[in-house]
Amino acid sequence: MESLNPINYKRIVILTGAGISAESGIQTFRDSGGLWENYPVEEVATPDAFHRDPHKVWRFYSHRRHQAGLATPNRAHEALVDFAQKINPHLFLITQNVDYLHQRAGGDILSPHCMHGSLHQSRCTACQKVHLDDIVYYDESGRFNPKHSGLFSTLPTNALTVENLKISEELPLSPCCHELLRPHIVWFGEVPFHLEEIFRRLEHCELFISIGTSGQVYPAAGFLQTAKSHGARTVLINQEAHHHNPYVDQFLEGKAGEVVPKFFKTT
Ligand code: NAD
Asked: Rounded to the nearest whole angstrom, what is the distance from the C-alpha of residue 186 to the centroid of ligand 1?
């Protein structure tokens, strides 16, 4: 298999999935011990689930905010920032992750396109305004006990605060309309964000790199094929060996924290 070097390419698109954050201690979805083993998707990650039982959904996302607040970016997140800073400031980074770790590693440099939303944002269910929100509404025992997660080292001035929180029946209300807040997450059955821009980039990229994603959630699962069919070279990085895929030019097997810094080396 040929060996591709990202230094030789200008228009690079990178797609990351839960695997890039696994070594930061954030659970993936589909590996054994993954998130869906404990929380069936239809009970916590669909619009219907929120309609039926918003308390349960907020408990689930409180748990995930708590976990994300404890995690720190790993060598793979850092290597991408380093590469963008020293070699290619025009990297186009798409992430399916909602954990904020790319931003914490260097969001100003990479500006990740979070196609499935972000754990650190909530949205008003009335006017759809998005608010910065790191509050963990329910504690790990499931009790309503709002506290900041520590996701932001300094709380931005436009973020929601525990002190000014509006609450009804142990659920958070938006500061704009005083209506129910929901996580700003793309749930199953909803349309991902930034798709128009993403497809435009995929159709014009020279190199497409997929890191730590199982390729089972569409539309992201189709990005590799789209990039390849528009002439890009393609690289897949995953800890699991993959079955032969005609759209992959180079497969790199191993943990993201080891493989990504080697692949994106800047010296
Ligand atoms: P996934 O759980 O379906 O797949 C993870 C993939 O990463 C697997 O193929 C696995 O073999 C690989 N992997 C695990 N550890 C790795 C490591 N250390 N290095 C390299 N590869 C590793 O996750 P997905 O493909 O991202 O898609 C599922 C959905 O899960 C997405 O919608 C995403 O929004 C969501 N999700 C996000 C997070 C997060 O924000 N960190 C966590 C779990 C799930």
From this structure: 15
